[in-house]
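W.,

You were right to be curious about this one. When I first looked at the sequence I had no strong expectations either way, so I just let the prediction run and decided to look at it fresh. Below is the sequence, 183 residues in total, followed by the output.
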Amino acid sequence: GYAVAAASERGEALLADLDLLSALDQDRAAAAAEVQKTAAGTVARPFDPTPLGDKAMTELFQSPFWEEVAFSCINCGTCTFLCPTCWCFDIQDEVQKDAGVRLRNWDSCMFPLFTLHGSGHNPRQQKPQRVRQRFMHKFKYYIDKYGDGPACVGCGRCVQFCPVNIDIRQVVALMTARCVCPA
């Protein structure tokens, strides 16, 4: 089963309207807490991206560091397709005579054609630029836009399934080591 808890008034209203759910009794609450504790204990090497502040990320933007990080990447997109916080997409129009349909397709910022403009210009044509975009989005742009923590939940899916063993925790450690982070 699932344990569901509302985090807002809107969520509480939504849960109240669902008759599929039964009240979370003490036994189920204890079981849910135990599952959560067990899951948290399986994280082998948690990491803390908080030392990366605005100044640090800005300094790293033009750094040759990204070429080092991107060297082994094959731009397969596995990291982005498995990530629960990645949502890149592409819009395509399929036209047939006088009708058509607009489709929204899942895409990846790691693919060379993702940012290709109709004019032929591609602002992220090189692999290091795409790798930089992935990390800047997770650890800078998301924070700037939403005022929340990084767009990485630490689940490790990208680490587990990367065919060339790029480890986001190691990249964050390298980013932290190569920049002057705010105190």
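Here's what jumped out at me. The longest strand covers residues 89-96. And, maybe more interesting for your project: The chain has a mean pLDDT of 84.

Coffee later to discuss?

I.
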